[in-house]
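It is worth pausing here to work through a concrete case rather than discussing structure prediction in the abstract. The textbook approach is simple: state the sequence, then state the predicted structure, then interpret. We follow exactly that order.
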Amino acid sequence: MADQKAKHNPYFVIDFDSTFIQFEALDELAAIALDKDPEQKQKRLGKIKEYTKLGMEGKMSFPETLLKRIELLNAGKQDIDRVVEKLKKNISTSIERNKEFFEKYADRIFIISGGFKEYIAPVVAKYDIPSDQIFANTFEFNKHGQIIGFDQNNYLAQEGGKVKQLKNMGLDGDVLVIGDGYTDFQLKEAGLAKGFYAFTENIERANLLDKADHVAPSFDEFIYKHQLPMAISYPKNRIKVLLLGDPHPKAEEKFIDEGYHVQSLSQWLTEEELYEKVKDVSILCVGNNTQVTQKVVNNARRLLAIGVFGIEATNVDTDACLENDVVVLNAPYRNTRSVVELAIGNMIALLRQTHERNREMQEG
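Step two, the predicted structure:
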């Protein structure tokens, strides 16, 4: 019975930098702190980011990268307060969307990070993750509140620190790890985790993809994979969007921001080319020059909607779309703008009683 319960109630070990939040917090702390030294800022930031990358890719030992970054930091408690406020506004989109998941499973969620607890704890607090379930490094300060080092006895300041930390925790049950870095993969490699999920919503590290049990372009994907409660019914990263005919960059940007899997092609496609391309597409956006025929629609097994960048949708076989339950939309900007301009003009005319004044002038 205990084994069965552990199977259905795993522990979740989540990385912080570039996973829970959208970027590397220590790099951001450095950017804020080095505002005080503009002449050295770019040079030092470049070195800090280089060390971060080398550590995340497993090309330099973590203790070495941490020590080198702290030496370049020149930060204090006030800088930490500032970075906390920024981090709170930059939670990963899919993490923020699934706040209910964190509230429900708070007692089984652990943050294990090579970052620092001083800025991690205030950020994850609103997700009901208690401080004693956050395992991270801690700063050492001088009497003026300036960072002068870190606790080097902390497991997470050592080589293989995440492995040592998780082993020391002695969790009784399956452990699932989600993170973006090599040190997260090491938990699976050491046999301490049942699965490692490479989180790629914010950054994709190519050397990790073939090591992961599953690539998670969003936290929705991770939750969906394990059939856990989620904010949306289906991960948007599994929904493919095809934009054709040199669409406006904002169209692609909006779909990407919402988490969809997007492909944008500047050229127009022939019927045969489009026939092959739409097999697994759910949302198709085209201009007036692309013909979406019955043959194309019938081959698009997952197609839900077609958006037309134009005044009319005569290039789309709407009868075929109706038969296949595909919605066809068009909202050309110039038509929308014209209607708005007409409405505003009528409002002004009514407010100024233009028609009455005109009639009076005509009558003399």
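Step three, interpretation. DSSP finds 19 helices and 13 strands in the chain. The mean pLDDT is 90.
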